[in-house]
């Protein structure tokens, strides 16, 4: 079955970086993009960006430009999201999701990775 | 950036009753809108895409309607497993923004 499995929880100090992985299985990885979404404790969903697995093109929201980088490794069917210069308000659950493209939405989600930023 | 506004923030409904959730976009998103359900401690789940098409495995009691700037998610007869938070998301323009969510709770 189609599945996205994310890496485990992380605890980081302010100013550090974190890299979360998302391993896909059950489909041809290069066919669809991957979006990343985060959710701060008790808050709603916030879209963090998208990567085309086919050609590596990315889209990020303005508020994360320069701090976030999304990449993929097609040899292992794994997507990565790196967030730098961590602050306490980056504490959140981070999700990857298979992105079917315009008009079809995010149909399969990873289980989430909790990132805690604390000194 | 397209702002998505959901209402109400909380909806209290009795099991078996109908629930109607609204989502409004600050500018037209055509039919490029999805609805997601999220239960505590779980990842979101896609319910509806293209504003009105049920995703695979989603029961027929869930239906979506609307286009342009006004959208509705209707749950025709609430089951116990439907009490959750529901989010809309537009994927018409970058960045792909979510609404703030509607919590459907037991009355």
Summarize the structure in words.
The complex is a heterodimer of chains A (119) and B (107). Chain A has 119 residues and is mostly beta strands. Chain A contains no helices and 11 strands. In chain A, the strands form 2 sheets. In chain A, strands 2, 4, 5, 6, 9, 10 and 11 form a 7-stranded mixed beta sheet that branches. In chain A, a hairpin with a 6-residue loop joins strand 4 and strand 5. Chain A is globular, with a radius of gyration of 14 Å. The termini of chain A are far apart. Chain B is mainly beta. Helices cover 0% and strands 48% of the residues of chain B. Chain B has a 6-stranded mixed beta sheet with strand order 2-10-9-4-5-6, with no helix packed on it. Chain B has a 4-stranded antiparallel beta sheet with strand order 1-3-8-7, with no helix packed on it. The radius of gyration of chain B is 13 Å and the shape is globular. The N and C termini of chain B lie far apart (35 Å). Classes of the chains: A mainly beta (119), B mainly beta (107). At the A-B interface, strand 5 and strand 10 of A face strand 4 and strand 5 of B.
Could you name the key traits of this structure?
heterodimer; A: 119 residues; mainly beta; seven-stranded mixed β-sheet; four-stranded antiparallel β-sheet; B: mainly beta; six-stranded mixed β-sheet; 0% helix
């Amino acid at each position: 079955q189609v599945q996205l499995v994310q890496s485990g929880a992380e605890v980081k100090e302010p100013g550090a970086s974190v890299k979360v992985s998302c391993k896909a299985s059950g489909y041809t990885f290069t066919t669809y993009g991957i979006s990343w979404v985060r959710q701060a404790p008790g808050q709603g969903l916030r879209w963090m960006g998208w990567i085309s697995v086919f050609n590596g093109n990315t889209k990020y929201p303005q508020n994360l430009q320069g701090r976030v980088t999304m990449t993929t490794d097609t040899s292992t069917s794994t997507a990565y999201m790196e967030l730098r210069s961590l602050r306490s308000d980056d504490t959140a659950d981070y999700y990857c999701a298979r992105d079917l493209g315009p008009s079809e939405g995010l149909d399969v989600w990873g289980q989430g990775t909790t990132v805690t930023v604390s000194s | 950036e397209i702002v998505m506004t959901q209402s109400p923030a909380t909806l209290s409904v009795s099991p078996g009753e109908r629930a109607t959730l609204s989502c409004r976009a600050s500018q037209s998103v055509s039919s490029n809108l999805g609805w997601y359900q999220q239960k505590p401690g779980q990842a979101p789940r896609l319910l509806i895409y293209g504003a009105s098409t049920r995703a695979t495995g989603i029961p027929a009691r869930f239906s979506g309607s609307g286009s342009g700037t006004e959208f509705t998610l209707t749950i025709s007869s609430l089951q116990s497993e439907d009490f959750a938070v529901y989010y809309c998301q537009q994927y018409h323009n970058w960045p792909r923004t979510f609404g703030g969510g509607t919590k459907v709770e037991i009355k």
